[in-house]
Design goal:
455 residues; alpha+beta; outer membrane lipoprotein receptor (LolB), chain A; two-stranded antiparallel sheet; 19 strands; 15% helix; globular; disordered N terminus
């Protein structure tokens, strides 16, 4: 009995520790979001040299922005590179680079470059997102085992993150608008620079930010995703529907595929973790998408700390409709002439594969932009612990909303010397349109997928 008593006491103590670890911050701490910190939890002050203070971000469209969904002009056309990092001088800047970025210089010493521009803290969100973020700070908690979140809605759940799981959940649930539609292409670029486009039409409704929703109405749904393939002809008409759940351990994401040739809708139960994505030609796995998505339960997460780093930012030139895909895509990597990197503070989160868990990546190191909580760079390691892949999200502020999200995501395999790109729309008539009315409840259902697929 005595032993049982001590066991029970130990269990209660562990439970108490777990509750403290999961607890929201105090009102006093949350008040920092109105002064010392930005409304989303970044340091408001600059670093005194090359990172400026945050002064509200970019919230006004450029004068030539007239129509929702049109391509964005660069709000800083006068900016020129301050300097360029190359394979020759990379060691001078390595404290501000990831291991994966250093590996890109080593893999492509003649061609990979990082033009460094003046840092502009353009990130911004609507006021109601800031208000919800403050509320979340004092009420949001991690779910059991960190597989989900509770008591959060409409804003960053953990703006004053205390651990790696809270930080990665901030990325998963970050502000990306409410509903958008977009036509874009993805490509797997081979060693010689050749590629074949796969063009899709995507509609996404972020239920977590749906003004018609609430904490009580989320029903464990983070977002709804619908994608129709437009080309090439052999794939045209195919479609994918996803109901993305928040806690995917409790309830796995629901996915359906429509086969145009068979005219049938089927469940796709294995679209998770390290399932290869067909259109990526083996260069992207399911949870690589969006730099990371889905259940975090196969890894141990550590919040390493914060550092200054050169990351893709304000990528207006890269997404310009004045460029062709041929001008953007080069052997090994994107054309450096059109990329832009800036020094920003990032949160560093490391994920190590749990003992007994299975995944192709033994370790992943994530670098989250402090102003948005978006993962902008990921270093990924193979089973032997060697750097294998590096992913980068080239973000910009869609200033008409405002929301700072990726324009293209790039997934490098430095061993295969190939890379995959998502989100190309330079040659499309428009880009992401955030202005559309919210669809009805039947829009993201399997039956609607079947009806629309028959058209």
């Amino acid at each position: 009995m005595k032993n049982n008593k001590w066991v029970a006491a130990g269990v209660l103590a562990l439970a108490a520790c777990f509750q403290v670890a999961n607890a929201a911050v105090s009102v006093q701490q949350a008040e920092k979001l109105k002064g010392e910190l930005t409304p989303l939890g970044a340091e408001r002050a600059g670093n005194g040299s090359d990172i400026p203070p945050w002064r509200g971000g970019l919230t006004v469209p450029t004068l030539d922005y007239k129509e929702p969904g049109q391509h964005h002009s660069n709000p800083y056309p006068q900016d020129k590179p301050l300097f360029t990092i190359t394979a020759e001088n990379k060691d001078e800047y390595k404290e501000f680079l990831s291991e994966g970025q250093m590996a890109l210089f080593a893999t492509y010493p003649e061609t990979f470059k990082m033009p460094i521009y003046k840092t502009r803290r353009t990130a911004a969100a609507p006021e109601w997102v800031y208000e919800n973020t403050y509320k979340n700070a004092i009420r949001a908690e991690l779910g059991e085992g960190g597989a989900g979140i509770r008591y959060a809605y409409g804003g960053i759940p953990f703006p004053i993150a205390k651990n790696g799981l809270e930080a990665i959940w901030n990325h998963i649930t970050r502000w990306r608008g409410i509903f958008f539609s977009r036509r874009s292409s993805e490509v797997a670029v081979q060693r010689d620079g050749s590629y074949s486009l796969v063009t899709v039409q995507q509609d996404v409704l972020f239920n977590f930010y749906n003004p018609k929703s609430s904490i009580d109405k989320l029903d464990n749904i983070l977002f709804y995703y619908l994608s129709f393939t437009k080309s090439p002809a052999r794939l045209a008409g195919g479609a994918v529907l996803v109901h993305e759940t928040i806690d995917q351990v409790e309830e796995a994401r629901q996915a359906w595929g429509y086969n145009a040739g068979q005219r049938r809708v089927r469940r796709a139960p294995n679209l998770a973790y390290d399932t290869p994505i067909a259109a990526a030609d083996g260069l992207r796995y399911a949870d690589d998408t969006d730099m990371f998505n889905g259940a975090p339960d196969r890894y141990e997460w550590t919040l390493v700390g914060k550092k200054e780093m050169y990351i893709p930012y304000n990528s207006y030139d890269l997404s310009s409709n004045k460029l062709t895909y041929e001008q953007v895509l080069k052997p090994g990597h994107l054309n450096p002439e059109h990329t832009r990197y800036e020094k920003h503070r990032v949160w560093v989160v490391e994920a190590n594969l749990k003992e007994g868990a299975r995944h192709v990546y033994s370790k992943r190191r994530f670098f989250l932009d402090e102003d948005t909580w978006a993962v902008t760079v990921v270093d990924q390691y193979d089973a032997a612990g060697e750097i294998w892949r590096i992913s980068m999200a080239y973000t910009k502020n869609y200033y008409e909303v405002p929301v700072t999200v990726t324009t293209v995501d790039v997934f490098h395999d430095i061993k295969a010397r190939r890379y995959h790109v998502q989100g190309l729309d330079n040659e499309e008539r428009g880009t992401v349109d955030f202005s559309l009315e919210l669809p009805n409840d039947q829009y993201f259902t399997p039956s609607a997928l079947r009806r629309r697929g028959k058209r």
